[in-house]
Structure formats: structure tokens, C-alpha cells
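Hi support team,

I submitted a single chain yesterday and got back a structure, but I'm not sure I'm reading the C-alpha cell output correctly. Could someone confirm the output below corresponds to the sequence I sent? I've pasted both exactly as they appear in my results page.

Thanks,
R.
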Amino acid sequence: MSEKRQIARAAGLVGALTVVSRVTGLVRDIVVGYLFGAGTGADAFFVAYRIPNLLRRLVAEGAATAAFIPVFTGYLTRGPRAEADRVARVLLTVMALVLAAVTLLGIVFAGPVTALFAPGFAAVPGKLELTIRLTRVVFPYIFCVGMVAAAMGVLNSLRDFWAPAMSPVVMNVVMIVATVVLAPWLGIYSLAVAVLLGGLAQMVSQLPALRQQGIPVAPLWVPRHPAVKRVGALMLPTVLGSAVYQFNVLVSTMFASLLPAGSVAFLWYAERLFEFPLGVFAVALSTAALPSFAALAKRDLAMFRDTVGFALRLVNVIALPAAVGLALTAEPLTSVLFVRGQFTPADAAATAIAVRWYSVGLWSVACVRVLVPAFYALEDTRTPVVTAIAAFFANLLFVVLFIGPLESPPDSWFGSAMAAVTHAVGILDLRHGGLALSTSLAATVNLVLLAAVLSRRTGGFAWGPWLGSVARTTLAAAAMVPVVRAIVARVEWFDGTTALGVRVVWLLLAVVAGTLTCAAALNVVGGAEIAAFRRAIVARLGRRVAPRAS
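Hi R., thanks for writing in. Yes, this is the structure output for that exact sequence:
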């Protein structure tokens, strides 16, 4: 099977499971919104959850997977399987000790870390203290999910995508059940406990897959093994690159803490909708593509370049229409999904503003998530760091330009300094919407830089097919704009009087009509990537029908 077909097939599996993950994630967020809304408690929890999430992605998830796969793939392809299994045990053992140390430090220093990341919370009595307590409860989650990420690196190298892709579903289901059961007794703390239980369930769910692949789960302490040194050498710049992106997120959180109550929660809920199309396809594609990229980079640079271009064209077909659709349906989506219980129509309208600005950068983020693994496959972890640093400073500039004038908080040098800068140089007053727009524009800066460097690094990139695909897909996506707008305009989404059933029907009508219009337009404009999607759909439908016919 060719690497292109390997990628398409694996992306289909991971994408299908990720759809389930994102749907259960939306259910989880609907439950959270119903129980806790977008008030002080929700703001505190989302900041507390974001801090270990930052370290998870720095030390564990992205860095571990990106560093594990090239190294482990090398042992699989160049040596006996027994040695590769031994390397897996060594790497998992070292990762467990690193994660345990990070978890302990996080619990001990939760106070000053939380005060740094949420400077505006000190102005609200009890809000900062609540956030610190929640941070300490949530922090051990990093150990569980970090081990899941390490196991994912090993399993994906063996082309086993099922258990890693299912683990977020396990997390979401456990969180939903635990939150509903515990909320009457623990209040907002039920979310923190639910995160821990979900992380533990994720970790345990990987053990059967590791055993099935013949990877012993018993620890093996060989800290001087060459694989440890190689993974460490790859992880350090990868961590720095991931750090820049995550610091963008934290900068947004820090600024949001200086805005009116609920701003952190508005951005959180909006990110969940923004991440849905990314998770359904872009993350699935990048997960499936990295092993193929790693294999091709070692033996055929021309085929590697061609395969990366093909993956990017696949991204266009999904991400560009998704970005347009998300912008058009921001208000219907937030109205239908979140307006209930403690989550008010005003909260949903504020969340919709952030969704619309996030949609501006959806295509850029999706492309970046394919390009960065391409650099990792080339064992070039420096370039993503450099481009991410440039994007970080671009994001900071965009924030102070677009957020609007801020009030100076008490006892925070950062908050006071940023407030002064926004008064001096700000040109728009978009509030939390400005934070979402800044994230989108920074992702576009990152994309342009990565694409330029990859072209030079691989001896030239096929810009013509990619840009042609962008133009065709943009034209097809534009075709659905008048159709969706006409449908969405028929309903008052936030007046508080339109029944939920009516809103659901009109939203579904808008989504179906927009999808069919875009699909018809894509079929007209054509392209190799469209043909690849048609073949994948036909093949998948054929596999489903065949058992019934037998």
C-alpha cells in the first residue's frame, strides 16, 4: 500500500474516532455550561485546567509523540523487534519519572504560577484563591495524560491508531458522568475531580493495546540508553516550539483575566467549537501522516515533498469550507449547544463573537498541524521553534492592537504594564474577540514562515497545485455563503423566546444546505484531492455494505 493510501486510510480511522471524541467533548462542554455557566467558578476552573494542559502539551503530548515516533520508527525499521520493544519500555519509564516530577512541582508552586497566569483574578475577592485550589486538584492529570501521549507515540509508530484515538472518548465520558454525579456535593470542584478520573481512565485504556502489540508494560530503567538521548535531543526544541504556541494561549488567558468576568469562559467554549473541525480532520490527518512522513523522509525526499503537498491539499478541502461554515453558523451553534441552565443567551452571544474570530485562522492552524510533523519527520525541530517564536511576538502585537483599553489590576506588574500599552497603541476595541482574532492572525504568520522554509529545505515545493487547490476550494466554500445566511437570518437566536426544537431544525437545515451546496461546488471545480475523497468515501461505503451482502 502506498504512503498516500496509508495516510488516507489511517486518517479516515482516526478521523472517524475523533468525530466521536469531539461529539462527546461537546456533550461534556454542554453539561459544564448547563451546570456552571460562564461565571466566576467557570473562569477559575478553565484557568486551573489550562495550566496543567500547558505542561501536558509541552512535556508530554506533542513533544513526546513527535520525538518518540521518528526514533522508535528507526529501531523498528533498522533493527530486531526485540530491541524496539526494549526501547519502548525504556522511554515509557523515563517519561513516567519526568511527569511525576513535573506534577509534584506543579502542586507545590500552584500559588505563584496561577497568580502569574491570571493577574486580573486578584481584583475579584476569592477568585484567585479558588483558582489556586482547583489547580492543585487538577495538576496530577498531567501524569496520566502524559503517559497516554507517550503510549500513543509507540502505538502510532506501529500503525495502531485505535486505542490512542479512543482515549479522548473515554476521558469525555468519564468526565460527563463524574461531573453530573458529583456536582450536587462538590460544586465546581466536581470538574477538577472529573478531570483526574478521566485522565486515569485514559491511561488504563492504553494498556491492552500495548500488550496486544507485544510491548511489555513493566518499567525498565536504562537512562543512558542511546534512544533516551536521541529522544531528549529531539524533545528539547520540540518542547520549546510547543511552548511558544501554548504561551500564545496563556497570553490570551492572562489578558482575558483582565477583561470582565466570563471572558475566559467565552474563549474556552469558543475554542471547543473551533477545535471540532480541526480534531475531526486536521489532527487526524497529521497523526496519520507523521509515520508516513518519517518513513519517506529517510528514503525518498521527492516522494516526501509530494506526499506533504497531497496532505495539505486534503486539508484545504475540509478546513476552508469548515472555516466559512463556522463563521456563518457561530450564533446558531452557540445558541443551540449552550443556552440552557446557567448559560444565558448573553453568554452564548459573547461566545459566538469569539467563534467567528477564531474561524478566521482555522485553515492556517490546520495547515500548520500538517507542516510541523513534516519538519519532525526530517528531524528538524529547530525550524518550528523559530517560526513559532515569530508567531508568538506577532500574537502579542495583535493583542495589544485589537483588545481595546484595559483597566490596571491591583498588585500585578504584568497587568498594569499591559493596560498601559493597550491605552497607548490600541486601534480596535474587540475585547475577547480581539484575543481570538490575534490567535488566528498569528497562526497565519506561522503558516507562511513554515511553508517558505519547507520549500527551501526540500529543494522546492509544488506551490502551483497547492495554491490552485486553495483557490478552487475557496470558490466552492463561497458558494454556500448566501444559502446559509438566508437560512440563519430566519431565526432570532438569542431572544430567549424561540423554542430549542425550532432552533435545532433551522441549524440542521443551514448545515445540510451549506454542506450540499459546497459539495456540489467542489464536484464542479474538481481536483485530485476531491477525487481522493470520493474514492475514500466509496471504499468505506463498500466495506460497510460488503458484510451485509455476504
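A quick pointer for reading it: Residues 3-535 form one domain. Let us know if anything else looks off.

Best,
Support desk
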